[in-house]
Amino acid sequence: MGYFLGLIVVLGALWLGLSGIYEPLILTLSVISLLVVLLLAYRLDTVDKEGSPYARTPQLFAYWAWLVVEIFKANWPVIKACVSADLDINPALVKVKTRCESDLAKTIFANSITLTPGTVTVEVEGDKLLVHALFEEDATPDSFAEMDERSWRAADGRQAQASKQVRT
Amino acid sequence: MIGAAAIALIVAIGLMLIRALSGPTLYDRVLAMNSLGTKIVLFIGVLGFVLGRPDFLDISVLYALINFVSTIAILKFFRYRSFQVPLMRKTNTPRQPRAAEGGEDG
Amino acid sequence: MGELLGFLMAAKPVLGAFLCLVGGTLAIIGTVGVLRFPDFYTRLHAASVTDTGAATITIIGMALLAPSWLVVFKLAAIWLFLFLTGPTGTHALANAAHTAGLQPVIGRQRDLAEHAEEDA
Q: Which residues contact A75 (CB under 8 A, 6 or more apart)?
């Protein structure tokens, strides 16, 4: 039920923000289309933790803010490689192990790797990711550790704490 | 200056078309079309500000969505040669990958 | 304080247009990278410069030019879509190429070029 509520709030905000016309007729149409979308989402069976992960919005936005800074830092070497006179690149395939357990956390981690210029996730199998990197020296397993840790904390924080307590 | 930004985006789109036309493999072409779509989204937005009509951004939103769906659809079609296959790994066993597929001039 | 605010309001359109220009330049740089890099997997990296850096800077520039908050909301929505769909599309591409058996070029490119010259 909470997932439905989250979906309704987000879809309503999206409609209000994108339309910008607040007349009774348009608002009625918005309610109708919202109901149709909810019905479709229910029939597709996508209203679950992955379909509307809005319960963890603050953590996800905090992670996102960190990620944007990280992306801008990673942009520089690739831009330099694009415009430098000789092709000074060293592409490599690297295996990265992740501690993320849920599918959502794994998706967030793999997508952040892909989003960062210089590294692309080629394949995900279990808890191992095959990453293609533009510079082999920048793509050591340690360089992904912080991103791994942060995406894990952002996507399944409470479970993570519980499993940590079990482990210690 | 905003006009110069629009012209820069047009130049980038034109250069990307070279890669789309000359890409040695199918995937280079799909990559070029995907990146071209992102640039066109930005260009439509900038064009709206050049012409003083920011309503163009609605078209931009639509283009961003269609661009993503079309990329995924093209990739799925060229992998399975059909749209009838569900995109879940557990529920189907993909056919044996064909090595020659990447080298074919798509 | 009021003067500073007035100056910022006056400089906003210029700054916005300048950021748009920077974004356009980044798009050209990314495209040049796509044209120059040797194989498909390295081209993906060059394309992701356009998808992230150029898109973000251009959209921030447009947000500074925006006449109303609704336009800013639309720009934020476009940014969100681009950032959610961009890596998914890129990963789908890389995975499809990998599954089809396209082999990446590995190793420092300068050395490879020298070896090629020696072999020739």
A: A117, C49, C52, C53
Per-residue burial over B73-94, b = 16 or more CB atoms within 10 Å of its CB, e = otherwise:
ebbbebbeeeeeeeeeeeeeee
Q: Report angle CA B10, A117, C38 to the nearest 5 degrees.
A: 75
pLDDT score of B96: 46
Q: Are B12 and C30 in contact (CB under 8 A)?
A: yes
**Chain A contacts to C (CB-CB under 8 A):** 14, 17-18, 20, 68, 71-72, 75, 78-79, 81-83, 86-93, 110-112, 114-123, 130, 132, 134
Instruction: Give the tens place of pLDDT for each residue, B22-51.
Output: 878 888 888 889 999 999 999 998 998 888
Q: Which residues of chain C have pLDDT under 70?
A: 1, 109-120
Range of the domain at C44: 2-119
Count the domains in chain C: 1
**Is residue A145 a contact partner of residue A137, using CB atoms and an 8 Å limit?**
no
Annotated domain spans of chain B: 2-83
**Chain C nearest C-alpha distance from B103 (Å):** 8
What are the C-alpha distances in Å from B17 to residues B3, B33, B37, B39? 21, 8, 11, 11
Tokens of A116: 């960062």
pLDDT per position as a tens digit, B85-101: 665 555 444 444 444 44
